[in-house]
Amino acid sequence: MSGTALDIPLQIDTAVDAVPLRSVDELVDVIREGLAAGYCGELEVHDRKDAAARVCIDRGRLAWVHCSTHGEHLGDVLRRECGLSPAHLRLVMTRCRATGERFGESLAALGLVSMCALREALRAHLAAHSAHVMALGEGLRASFHPVEHRYDRRLTFAFDDLPWRAPDPASSPIVVATRASELVHACERARETREAPLWVGFVDLRDGGCLAESHAEGLDGSAIQRAVLRDAHAIVSAASPRGADREIEAVLHGSGVAVGLRVFLTSNVTAALIASASARDAEVSIVLHSLAQAARHWQAAQAGARSVGA
Hints:
Blueprint: E1 19-20, H1 24-36, E2 41-46, E3 52-58, E4 61-67, H2 74-82, H3 86-99, H4 103-109, H5 115-133, E5 141-146, H6 176-193, E6 199-204, E7 210-215, H7 221-230, H8 232-238, E8 247-252, E9 259-265, E10 271-276, H9 282-309
Antiparallel strand pairs: 1-5, 2-3, 2-5, 3-4, 6-7, 6-10, 8-9, 9-10
Helix pairs in contact: 2-5, 6-9
């Protein structure tokens, strides 16, 4: 990869502006180069459609890979593969905050899962995200951010431990319902101590189904849901051009209160994630974003399954 602008960041100790990459193959070269050089820090990548990826390297080993186009969390993998409950995961997070330990370290210290099982679950999780990194679109730009990490070496990986292949949408796990459930819990926790959305939910505009919803005390959530479905055509029209992912603002008056709505539409405009504009809580915002990503992932999987069966 000699001659590329990304030779430079590996030789300096400060973050640099993002530089263009010609393809994901060149991105792979950059990751391999960082590993071989014993780099310690993060590689941040964006494509032209604002999909984002982050690759964390700790002393020449892969410690973390995340791509915004993949909606699954490590907690989803641990629940599915290791049988952990949401209560177990909350216990781990409480310990992390109290001790400053990393998530994996606390999980192993509490004896909830063996180190071997944890490593395999983490490998599967990073493998799924690495596949989505390989599916990033055109206009890639990357930047390096040197950071001194100290991960447990047993929970880091060589490049070839992960597949680095674009995902098969038809075989990817569907996590919309999980994300919707987490969204409700995040909203309810936020309301206990601070401002949170008046109403939030994930609504299928095709049949009026609601995967999950949460509303403030004293507010008729079902009335808001009915108003959303009644105004669905206007919401979809406002999010044109048809077929594009959009975040729009709308105001709903038919529920008895005026609620500012943030609407995320999936790529084929069949479902909408809606939250009041007062959503300022960080945890709620993170889960909102994750649920929107999961919804788009779900639509891609449905489209892939249909094409396979055709």
